[in-house]
Specification:
Ubiquitin Conjugating Enzyme; alpha+beta; 168 residues; nucleotide-binding; UBQ-conjugating_AS; ubiquitin conjugating enzyme activity; 5-stranded antiparallel sheet; 4 helices; UBQ-conjugating_enzyme/RWD
Length: 168
Amino acid sequence: MLTSLCTLKLEPYFQAALSIVSCFFFFLLGPMNEENFFEWEALIMGPEDTCFEYGVFPAILSFPLDYPLSPPKMRFTCEMFHPNIYPDGRVCISILHAPGDDPMGYESSAERWSPVQSVEKILLSVVSMLAEPNDESGANVDASKMWREDREQFNKIAKQIVQKSLGL
């Protein structure tokens, strides 16, 4: 039952991706292959007028069998240095947190996952996160500290990551 609900929710996105990789303003995405709706690749473009501008950052979205009741997980597969991205690439953002109340009290339940969210909404939230990190609930302590205390050095590291993302 839950798997069929997941398939129903993902099917429209999947069908669009079969004919052409879905292209939105800030990202490209689609299933990794036709047999598996549950693993998607995404390319996220760095937002304009930020230290990540011009970067192209690959990521994977992994959908659970009970999607859309539970959120997908997202992980960048390239090097990233950002307050809300763990060193292993996992993304820490409210929209990807399970529904309900936050035991730490940082997020309201309205900010967390709900089944009405879409793949596009997730990726737009991640693009916004790249532009405006939340350094109060950092997944990468070093990046959070540098974002607050030495923005020039943070921007320098981000620019190096952008260059690597472009193969320069």
